[in-house]
Specification:
Layout: E1 11-16, E2 22-28, E3 32-37, E4 42-46
Antiparallel strand pairs: 1-2, 3-4
């Protein structure tokens, strides 16, 4: 689950188990666009200073 990001805050993702118990969290900078965050993986795109 991705938390709502207020202006100036870092993006933060939370992971929960099948029973709804908290598993872990991930804090990211703005250069990374996350598409999926699982228990043991992260699917994302990193853009460099040229946008590539």
């Amino acid at each position: 689950m991705r938390r709502y990001r207020r202006p100036g805050e870092e993006e933060r993702w939370l992971a929960f188990g099948p029973r709804g118990d908290f598993q872990c969290h991930l804090t990211l900078d703005e250069s990374l666009t996350v598409y999926e965050f699982g228990a043991d993986y992260l699917l994302a795109v990193h853009a460099d200073e040229l946008g590539v």
